[in-house]
Amino acid sequence: MRVRIPTPLRSYTGQAAAVEAAPGTLADIFAELDRRFPGLRFRVIDEQGRIRQHMKVFIGDRLTADLATPVADADEVTIMQALSGG
Amino acid sequence: MSLLVGTRKGLFVVGNDGLDGEPWFLGHVIHHAVWDRGADRIVVAARTGHLGPTVFHSDDRGATWNEAAAPPAFRTGERLGRSLRACFWLTPPVGAAPGVWYAGGSPQGLFRSDDGGDTWAPVDGWNDHPDWETWCEWPEENTPDGSMLHSVNVDPRDPQHLYLGLSGGGVFESTDGGADWRPLNRGCAADFFPDPAPEFGHDPHCVRLHPLAPDRLYQQNHCGIYRLDRPGDTWTRIGDNMPRDIGDIGFPIELHPRDPDTVWVFPMDGTDVWPRTSPGGRPAVYRSDDAGATWQRLDRGLPQRGWITVKRQAMTVDDGDPVGVHFGTTGGEVWSSPDAGASWTCVASHLPEIYSIEVLGEPA
Fold it and tell me: Which distant-in-sequence residues (6+ apart) come within 8 Å of B344 by Cβ?
């Protein structure tokens, strides 16, 4: 499955806008991303396992905050960050 | 000698001839960037838009950067469910404790690294202290940018002896490496409480311990300028000796690296609705050479008229002779004095809002 990476996180992915990951739960996918791109997970998910405020994760077009949500091989995960502030 | 200038939108280096090179971490919030002379390492506390807070370090003076393998964070599953919103303050290694850094957070967590800022662990004795919620008024946020822990001071004679400041909350001391803590606020005003002399709840803006006279501390508080000589435990309001029309409100306080009687402050207007700009629109630094008994106005070269704000980490001194003094404004200007404050020059302008200024010197 494919994970779309927002520009603020591309310093972790070698500027890749999307990366492939093994299907599993969202938690599994973020764990894999953090193994391959150390530090990425903590920028998105806090130490209590909560997706940070104003960070959004979509599976297809479904917004979810539940890291236990399963993601199928055909799904696409999109990580988004609100662009707010001056 | 250069200056590391942390801003709301990146980290800049300013040398004697002005801005030096391109910014690092452009667009990232840089709360504090600090150089450890002993290791010639720069450590940076960063936040980025809505991403979580992290720490970067460089051993080649900024040519390359590495992110901390384990940045500061509260323990997973801890009872209050705290998550770190910002790493606000960094204290580099002091005395005979190479590699030991402390970080202060928002919320008001304390974190320690034993490996030069690469892996960080919570200081449980502080973060889980039975009185933490009371001291920090958890979960209230008492300052406009959120409650924060700052001014982590390590006694160079004894690395187990620590001081820290809470905004709001007060000054606290530990003599056992952070396992236990006690408030240290006697003598400090807290005019915003019905009880003007509570045990804690004060608002120290910046607390400094003198490196060569570690029994002497100074603080710029929300309610005045103070000095404390240990083993005494009662702060003396040396700001009472400031001119009445200037007052003794401000954010930073800086100490002479060799003379424990010399300090600099940048007064701000704490009247009416607290503009926190230069009193009367006439910017000046004030220096005392006698431990706060008398104060001297230092404004040669500064704008005749100006409404300047200098945040608590945005003033520093170097170790020159005479001492150089440097400050950065929320309007993005860096001002330096090569002569202990006697005269001032603007060495950089048009930067983003400045949060911190620290010296980047030559390696030991």
Answer: B285, B298, B299, B300, B301, B302, B335, B336, B337
